[in-house]
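Data deposition worksheet. Section B asks for the primary sequence of the deposited chain exactly as it was used as input, without tags or linkers unless they were present during the calculation. Section C holds the resulting structure in token form. Section D is free text for depositor observations; keep each observation to a single sentence. Incomplete worksheets are returned to the depositor.
Section A, Depositor: J.P.
Section B:
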Amino acid sequence: MINIKSPIRIFLVFAILFPVYSQETFEEFRKKQQQAQQQAFEDELSEFQNYVAEVTSQYDAYEQQQIREFEAFKKDVEEKWQDFKAPSKKEYVEYDDDLDSRASVDFEKGEITIEVIVEEEIPTPDPEPIKKVEKTVPKQETKQAPIRQVTQEKKKDTEPKSLKSIVEKTKTPVSQKEKPQQRSPELKKKISDQKLQRKLADILKAKGDDGKPMLNKQVVDKKGKTVTPATAKAYASELVANAPVATKTYKAKDGKKRTVYTVKIPMKSDHINTRADRYKQEVLKQSKRFNIDPIIAFAVMETESAFNPKAKSHIPAYGLMQLVPKSGARDAYLYVYKKDKFLDRDYLYKPGNNIELGCAYLAKIRHQYFKSIKDDERAYICTVPAYNTGIGNVAKALVNKPKLKPAAQKANSMSPDQLYKKLMKDLKYKEARDYLERVWTRKDKYTSLLK
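Section C:
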């Protein structure tokens, strides 16, 4: 029995029954089918292009918003502070809401810096509100000129003279105003110590996007005991009371004279290994998932951020493996999930998301762009700088043009040592050469971590 569900089979039945029209009708039918398929393809392509353009516009708008917010924040800080300290790939910076205190953690050097500012003069108290004069004004006069109007810069000529005279008597003549008082050294020290203690305790308790303290197991007290969130306040109090505090007085942009008080706290000598171990399980999981060498992933992560979970570069790139939302992160997400998506910094600050996409991007370079390189060692020698500077620049260093097939052939014709030296010599940018060297010299130490 013939299955006549498909259009072709329907036509065949028709052709058998009506052979006179079969040839002409078949050609028309096939032409219409091709046109319909072409139109469907064009519609789908147009829909996809519109979607990609929409996501791209989201990234563009987000970048502009981030720039505006950063510049506004920078301006506010510079009104009070002598200098502006911004976060970087390997240094985390945090300001209090009132901008009077800031903490910075250098995850590469292993050093915490706490800074607070104190005004040299006691702030002049606000004058008593003029509305208190209202008690001395006869009720019948307040109806003619409400007291809130007196505070305006331009007063109406219709105001009663009696009201004007009362207000003038409440103003303090310039000659009688008290000069701002200088804070005593004792008072300044008391204020600065309190601020330093509070800010140090806060940063020791601060959590990353994985819900764990960023400095977990990385600071010890004078007895060698690990500082925890529960002991952070007591530790901060003792340290500030005994540690040397640097001071520097300056005049800020807002015209006020301030003194900045600074105290530095060293982290444990093995702080980098401590943080690496924190992300070990996730790196192993994603490395296995994407078939990449975990020691390469670890070495890339250390080189990119020194395992700073809040890493942010000027580009900007975010997180442990320094992914740029609009390019690397977007490409990696598309590689993994086969769809385009807008990813913001909050998404990329989450260690799980960042490690997933960072490992995926390494895999895409190794298994897609450099799939023709026949062994892992040569492939990773090319993959590592490509993660930093792009695959085109690596190809150019090998064959003077951004062609991947000839570049792979060139890599295969050389020993790993020759290939490494070739790239160290001919990569165009010094940053990429330094990057390859740092990753390649760091990778072996992670072999023991993974045992």
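Section D:
The chain has three domains: 7-68, 81-122+181-269, 273-449.
Residues 81-122+181-269 form one domain.
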